[in-house]
Amino acid sequence: MAEALSLASSLVALAGFAFQTSKSLYQVIESFKTTKRTVRELRYELDSLTQALATLQQAAANNEDQLVALKLPLLRCGKICKEFEEVINSCISHSHGQRASFRDWAKLQYMGGDIENIRITLAGYKATINIALGGATFRQANVTANVLDEYRQMIAEATSDLQDHLQGINERVESLEQKGPVQDSDADLSVIMEEKESTEHPPLSREEKARLDIIKEERDSITQCLSICAEASDLTGKARTNVFEDVTSSDDSHQLVVSTIGDLISARHIITGARSMQWLGQMSDDTLQQLSRSQKNISREQEDLGV
Question: What pLDDT does 5 receive?
Fold first, then answer.
């Protein structure tokens, strides 16, 4: 299925691919029933990733324009899950299919890293998906100041993790470059060297070129994730202002021009009549509800007194 998908595919198709492969990988890992910490953490990460992808699938059809930047991360996420499942199945075949006796988790390698590297990579994709979904919601609906602060914190943490991940890849590439040509080994499944033509090194073999394509795509994907985070951060930095102009209420009225979610308010030519009450500015939702209840009580008392 991955071979038939590309960046030209629809967002819905790519989200479906990533969802199915992550779910399949989760089921394979779950079937081992191992208590190893690194494997448990990867399983938990995959579970939360599939939940994020399920939410994305529901949102993709109606929000493709706002979520289109996720195409490359989704493609890479799906490929990683699919290819790592193939690595696991290959190890199972070497263990004569004995899942219960399979104990070589520490030897599993993909993208030049171990299971923890896989977990970190998938966590970065999950965070990016959630940030993109949050940005789509932020554009379409009002959110409270607390929610906005939590969203900013999520962006900051994801950005830091993605930068560390990218730096780790670059360090491994630099280390490999210093060693010269890399011998074939399971520990070096895809991390080779940056695409640099140099007379110091012999021409890349067909297998090495294929590996180079993988690492280039992963780098591009991580860079795209960082771009999504940067765009989301810029979005949260834009102060939203609710503009009210030429609002008039009659005598004996109650007029409120307020924001309960921390947005700024611009009010001009706000006029109210005689014996009226007027509130302008910021207030919490609880305060607004209390104010409403208080005014109802006052109105009842006035009715009882015949005012």
Answer: 84
